[in-house]
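User: Structure tokens for this complex, please. No commentary.
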Amino acid sequence: MLEFLIEHTWLQALIKMALLILAFVMPLASLSTWAERRQSAMMQDRLGPNRAELRLGSIELRLWGILHFVADALKMVFKEDVVPARANRFLFGLAPILAIAPVIITFAIIPFGSDLCVGHAFEVLRDPASMCTSTIPLQVARIDQGFLFYFALASLAVYGTTLAGWASYNKWSLLGGLRASSQMMSYEVTMGLSLMGAFLIYGTLEPHAMVLAQGPTPSSWGIVTQPLAFFIFLTAAIAETKRAPFDLPEGEPEIIGYFVEYSGMRFGIFFLAEFVETIFLAAVVTTVFLGGWQVPWLYPDGFHLMGWTLELPHLAVVLIQLVVWSLKIIVLCWLQLLIRWTLPRFRPDQLMRLGWKQLLPASLINIVVTAGVVLARSGGR
Amino acid sequence: MTSLLPLLSTAQVTPGEVEAPLGPQVAFWVLAALTVVGAMLAVTRRNLIGAVMSLVASFFGLAGLYLLLSAHFLAAIQVLVYAGGIMVLFVFVVMVLNQEEAEPWALRHVFGLALGVAAAVYLAVRLGQLLWAAGPGGGELASRLRIREGAPPQGYGTVAAIGDYFFTEFLFPFEAVSILLVIAVVGAVVLARTTVAKATTVYELPPGEVDLRQPQHDARDEVLGVLGHHAQAANRPGGGH
Amino acid sequence: MTVDYAPTLVALLFGLGFSCLFMALAVLFGPKRGGETKLSPFECGSDPIGSPRVRFSVKFYQVAILFLIFDIEAAFLYPWASQFRRLSCIGPMAGLSCLGTVTLFGFVEMLVFLGTLGVALAYVWRKRAIGWG
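Assistant:
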């Protein structure tokens, strides 16, 4: 069974992709719709959604309202499917797909654990290089240009918003679509350039190699080596998800945005895409700046800290890494919720100024300084 | 035609083997079909945005073909710059001009027809030449095509290899590109400035949106506006429920 | 180096299929009742005035073209960044550190490239083409 998997990489990829998306990303996205409403309620001294419950005979399952997302999903699916009379039916249907598909596909490059060493699950890996002859990488696609693949696909997400705005045949949607896409473009450049420093330091574009280069010592993680880039990237990436304080394309009290003509599950896809994007952004930040699946002082054979050692079997190490990786992502998602409900919305001119006049020059300076430091330090050794 | 395939799937062919494995063969035909059909739709579709999207699909096919040729970096850049950058610019041009869908230009005149036929004939001849050269005919073109059997050199087409080229063989073109980009920036600024002066509708702030930089307008206007909206909604034919 | 692209292809197909599945949910289960008013453009109850096909500000176009230029710039920087350590080292490398002599060549080359584009950015800044202010 395992040998078959190692040989047939496509089947392996399908299983990993399905597990990653269906068992981690989608549940987390659904839960964060509920978490967002509860979090905002707490911050505004309200209760928030807490009433959805499941009645099985005399048992009432309430669970603080977590079931609200199930109710929301069911409602969306069975809502009327409205396509405006003058809308372009094909592009109107294509837009939500283009909004969500790229972000789901790009999850393929995110490594979520160290390579599984086949046949040594219950042993302590003292010498991984010679012991592991066959491995199963915990990453769907390990390709040389990793992050380039992400930027390439992310640039296609612009079509989702633009097409939605144009195909609806509504001037407010179109304005929202143009605003959304010009905002995404303004910050996309900064996103790419801000990660350049990390590419310089770790000498690779491949996420897994980058995680390995960061190692289990937190002092060599990206957030320490590239603190400025961390803030630039986080800001630009939040702007890219179009959530408050960057929710101008939506502008709820004013123009309602590019999806004003969308209803039911078609709207639900845009809604879901937004939450999947927050998770993906958390995953990228984790990979580049927080050591990915690395756990502080956890090496392939166990914990090593100041002479103190705790040896662990391979499977336990991988499981701890998986859990810590998930925790890092959940904390970053929660951080985004806090930001979203704390800061007020920017004005269009402020948005453009922040993107082009502050973040872009800052990321360029960061590249030059990082290159200089790398150069100065590479000679010393 | 089979002899062209090793060229397109060098990554998978072992030296001496002529027939490519099934996977890349199928991939080649699917991608080629996507590229050609996408390009044809881009030309024939009446809806401009639809045409641009077909071209995006075509570029995707092209990126896939680059992958089959082991040009990994080029494939990523094809999607990043062409599908994600230049085509977005096209969409923006269509949207900013924002015309109702209209009939495309018909090839009515003799001159237009002659031009079309000449282009089609030229294309057919070039394609035929290429296929003939790759096939049993051989000749001068075949040597230029350099059909290779066996895997490409180590690291071929990767980001690292391209980086090497920037610093060695193609140093000058690389620096020249930056000058070219500056020229493009200047052009964009100059062109947009002249257009701003002539534009009929400048759509910066839509009606109903409040410019916070300006002093707030009389609150009574807003109330009247709201009442006006209600009156309109009630008078709407077939409106209400 | 032969890279296996089958996983990438699987990821692409999975993502597309998954998104289409959601779309299918909307189309299959959503009832369709329609009606002239319901299917007209939504403008909070008032009748739309004019066609949505009107011209928009050229500033949107300007943002797009600036994006394209800096996107291409970034595309050139990726190979440079990932190869920087190796290219500024004459001699053997041990992992990421250089054992031979360090050369400024790569650094200077990139300074020229970035400097030229910095001039472009400064020009745009001076001409007030960005910032919408």
